[in-house]
């Protein structure tokens, strides 16, 4: 039996032949997937609020490497708008795309500051990465990888991403901090601080609202905490409503400044390949996890319109290199929207439209503090951890390899590292247990490639 065959048994939402409706409902198959226009719009707004921090974090990271922050702000909004609209209008899936934080950090701190690569060459590397990433996608290599994700590792990725999201959100508000003393690396933060208290209260409120099935409960909590912060937190201030977008002064615009020939330099090529490999498994794992959480899988356990989803995020990286942003990927925060009921591309389309508006309403982004969105992200993280119940413990090698993948995503702070260890332990475990016949060639090849990628020192 092939390693991924048991994936067919998980619960799915299948596209059934139901009467077609016109307008938004017909185009996005809203009723067909058991949703409503209102539910999709609320989900889109929820996802947007959960990931809007990127327009502050990405320019800050790239700014530290010498990029013009005004130009990067524009690029970040454009990449999120382009990618999310492509995902929504073409792939019809509720997944939002933006500049990936991990790949942004690599671009800023490894490529530019670490290796001394110029900004145009770094953008050329991002553009090339997008081209290679898209080629791998359209030739079916990425779909082949997705198809060969073993049952345990597939669910382990979802569990690990959930834990990772929980840790990121908790750390962002100071609930969990770096341990200043000897011992384990993390410790409880200042429990009585406003961000920590509001995050915990907000998370508990989401539990209650979702239990009562209050429509838009997650979004209501984000809005309520933001209003509370505006009234009682001096750090949350109204800084205006409207601001014209600016690409920076003369000579500071990043639009079309990429140096592709410079990125083809043998010194830069390994960095391009590292970006590609990381994006393949990081973004692919995220797409699989979000689709699984939203139950947007067909009868064979594969993502509905998965090929379009994979192409949407790879093409977005090409666009990112052109406009002066960091490599793009589906955001884990998309799961906040699917938890709020998003099931179609209308969710992603709303996100894309809001990022276009943000180009002109940038001051409003400062009205949503981190502790307003942290409860939503922690809630989604906890939901994604429910994938533990889908592991088949009667097949201990597969299940424990999935758990190893999950745990090391969090312990190393890297999705690809967890996937690599999950694949490696599965292959070795099958061989040692005398179950080598249960492995398929795809699983073994992926495991070897991933281990070689890490052993060669190319991993980000």
From TrEMBL:
Q: Which Pfam families match?
A: Xan_ur_permease (PF00860)
Q: Which GO terms describe its cellular component?
A: plasma membrane
From the Swiss-Prot or TrEMBL record, give the protein name.
Answer: Permease
Q: Origin, by domain of life?
A: Bacteria
- Entry's family note: Belongs to the nucleobase:cation symporter-2 (NCS2) (TC 2.A.40) family. Azg-like subfamily.
The record's GO molecular-function terms, alphabetically, read: guanine transmembrane transporter activity
- List localization entries: Membrane
Query: Can you tell me where the transmembrane regions are?
Result: 41-65, 71-90, 95-113, 119-141, 153-177, 183-207, 214-232, 267-290, 310-332, 344-361, 368-388, 400-427, 439-459
Sorted alphabetically, which InterPro entries does this protein's record hold? Azg-like, NCS2
In which organism is this protein found?
Answer: Photobacterium jeanii
Disordered as annotated region, ranges: 1-20
Is Transport tagged as a keyword? yes
Q: Does the keyword Transmembrane apply?
A: yes
Q: Which UniProt keywords are listed? A: Membrane, Transmembrane, Transmembrane helix, Transport
**Per UniProt, what is the membrane topology?**
Multi-pass membrane protein
């Amino acid at each position: 039996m092939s390693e991924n065959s048991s994936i067919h048994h998980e619960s799915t939402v299948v596209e059934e032949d139901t009467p077609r409706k016109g307008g938004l409902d017909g185009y996005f198959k809203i009723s067909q997937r058991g949703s409503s226009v209102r539910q999709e719009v609320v989900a889109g707004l929820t996802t947007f609020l959960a990931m809007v921090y990127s327009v502050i974090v990405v320019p800050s990271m790239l700014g530290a490497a010498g990029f013009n922050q005004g130009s990067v702000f524009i690029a970040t909004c454009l990449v999120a708008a382009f990618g999310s609209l492509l995902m929504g209008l073409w792939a019809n899936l509720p997944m939002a795309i933006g500049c990936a934080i991990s790949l942004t950090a690599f671009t800023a701190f490894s490529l530019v500051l670490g290796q001394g690569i110029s900004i145009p060459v770094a953008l050329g590397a991002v553009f090339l990465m997008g081209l290679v990433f898209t080629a791998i996608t359209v030739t079916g290599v990425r779909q082949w990888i997705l198809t060969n994700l073993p049952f345990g590792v597939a669910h382990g990725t979802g569990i690990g991403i959930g834990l990772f999201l929980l840790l990121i959100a908790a750390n962002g508000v100071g609930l969990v901090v770096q341990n200043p003393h000897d011992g384990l690396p993390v410790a409880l933060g200042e429990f009585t601080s406003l961000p920590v208290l509001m995050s915990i209260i907000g998370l508990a409120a989401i539990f209650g609202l979702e239990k009562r099935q209050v429509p838009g409960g997650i979004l209501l909590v984000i809005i309520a905490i933001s209003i509370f912060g505006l009234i009682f937190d001096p750090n949350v201030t109204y800084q205006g409503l409207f601001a014209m977008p600016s690409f920076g002064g003369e000579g500071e615009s990043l639009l079309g400044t990429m140096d592709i020939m410079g990125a083809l330099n043998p010194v830069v090529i390994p960095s391009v390949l590292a970006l590609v490999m990381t994006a393949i498994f990081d973004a692919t794992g995220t797409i699989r996890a979000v689709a699984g959480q939203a139950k947007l899988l067909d009868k064979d356990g594969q993502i509905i319109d998965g090929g379009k989803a994979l192409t949407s995020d790879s093409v977005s990286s090409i666009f990112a290199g052109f406009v002066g942003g960091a490599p793009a990927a589906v955001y884990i925060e998309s799961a906040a929207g699917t938890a709020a009921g998003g099931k179609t591309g209308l969710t992603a389309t709303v996100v894309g439209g809001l990022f276009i508006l943000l180009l002109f309403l940038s001051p409003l982004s400062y009205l949503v503090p981190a502790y307003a969105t942290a409860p939503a992200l922690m809630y989604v993280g906890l939901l994604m951890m429910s994938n533990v119940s889908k592991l088949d413990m009667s097949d201990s090698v597969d299940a424990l390899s999935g758990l190893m993948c999950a745990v090391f995503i969090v312990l190393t702070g890297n999705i690809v590292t967890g996937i690599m260890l999950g694949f490696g332990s599965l292959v070795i475990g099958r061989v040692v247990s005398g179950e080598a016949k249960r492995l398929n060639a795809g699983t073994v090849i992926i495991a070897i490639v991933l281990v070689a990628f890490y052993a060669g020192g190319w991993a980000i």
